[in-house]
Write a structure and sequence with these properties.
The protein is of the alpha/beta class. Helix 3 packs across helix 5, helix 5 runs parallel beside helix 6 and helix 7 packs parallel to helix 9. The protein binds 2-amino-3-ketobutyric acid. This is L-threonine 3-dehydrogenase, mitochondrial. It catalyses: L-threonine + NAD(+) = (2S)-2-amino-3-oxobutanoate + NADH + H(+). Pathway: Amino-acid degradation; L-threonine degradation via oxydo-reductase pathway; glycine from L-threonine: step 1/2. Its EC number is 1.1.1.103.
């Protein structure tokens, strides 16, 4: 049954849409619910269709967005939703992340690669704008680690990283060869309180906050204290995603953009948390995720995103820490 009520009109001459209608795959992950909420706030209650293979996550339910089951590797099912809901924009989040991907490389290979191929095919067939976020995982041990350029060496050594390089290159190929409006941002680790991340190497940055709010206020971190990584608070991530999704195509000098915000280590974060929770304790038991973290950049050069579509993160480590702790405590009260 068609649930969306507002009319979608594509302006063929400018390739713009009077009323975006957005389908999100993998919406039950860390970011889908928050993105859906922000998009509904901007474009109205009918603007967003969340999809996943699992029952709707609490953040998706509380966003109020419509929800449909979708295995994004199934092209017919994907196309049917795009047609029935007159989708103008696809945000393709469904993927197995870095750490969980290493535990299930074949599953990651199928979901991440095939999901990307299907999403691009559907976008081509139905003229949707397609946003496929990439990641710092698309870089590897031979990439320059400080202020990593937008165009540089990309030889990742995780299956997730390989699949993200594939998504970047395939999306750019579909853009050049078939005119698909493909857009991509390389996310750093994202910190959020409404939904937890699942299976990433940057997850320590979220876990530490939730552990700090437990009565014993102690956390055992799976990477070393000095492991500095690129990180970002979720409001900046959502804003950057929407800004690129809606940016005037004429202003885009490329299709894949680095996004930088903060770089900090578990030790830096522990000190920031202790300003609010003085008895917070952290100890360290590095595991296989250390090697992944060591192969990724420390910071990214995002000058292209700043110049082309005005990217500018808002949150400092201090502001993020205060906001995270306040929200987690309020959620538990
Ligand atoms: C991960 O750690 O795998 C993700 C990412 C950086 O893409 N958070």
């Amino acid at each position: 049954m068609l649930r969306f009520s507002s009319l979608f009109v594509r302006n063929a001459s400018s390739n713009s849409f009077s009323m975006p209608r957005i389908l999100i795959t993998g919406a039950n992950g860390q970011l889908g619910g928050e993105l859906a909420e922000a998009l509904r706030g901007r474009f109205g209650p009918d603007a967003v269709l969340c999809t996943d293979i699992r029952v709707p996550a609490p953040s998706v339910q509380s966003s109020g967005a419509y929800f449909r089951y979708l295995d994004c590797t199934n092209k017919d099912d994907f196309a049917r939703l795009v047609v029935e809901h007159r989708i103008t924009h696809i945000v393709h989040y469904a993927a197995l992340l870095s750490a969980i991907g290493e535990r299930n490389p074949k599953e990651a290979l199928h979901l991440n690669m095939r999901g990307t191929e299907v999403a691009l095919e559907v976008a081509q067939n139905y003229g949707s704008v397609i946003m496929i976020p990439s990641s710092i995982a698309a870089f590897g041990p031979t990439t320059p680690r400080m202020n990593t350029p937008n165009i540089t060496i990309q030889r990742p050594n995780t299956i997730y990283g390989v699949s993200k390089v594939y998504a970047e290159l395939l999306g750019e190929y579909y853009h050049k060869r078939f005119g698909v409006d493909f857009r991509c941002v390389r996310y750093p680790g994202i910190i959020s309180w409404k939904s937890a991340p699942g299976g990433g190497t940057t997850d320590w940055s979220n876990h530490a906050f939730f552990a700090a709010c437990e009565p014993q206020s102690a956390y055992t971190c799976f990477v070393r204290p000095d492991t500095k990584m690129p990180l970002m608070y979720v409001p900046d991530c959502i804003k950057g995603t929407i800004d690129l999704m809606l940016a005037d195509e004429k202003k885009l000098s490329c299709r894949t953009y680095n996004l930088n915000a903060l770089s900090f280590s578990p030790d830096d974060l522990a000190r920031a948390i202790r300003r609010h929770v003085p008895h917070f304790k952290i100890d360290y038991a590095p595991d296989m995720r250390q090697a992944i973290a060591d192969s990724w950049p420390v910071s990214l050069d995002d000058a292209d995103a700043r110049r082309d579509w005005g990217w500018q993160p808002q949150y400092s480590l201090e502001a993020l820490t205060a906001d995270m702790l306040q929200n987690i405590m309020a959620q538990r009260a």
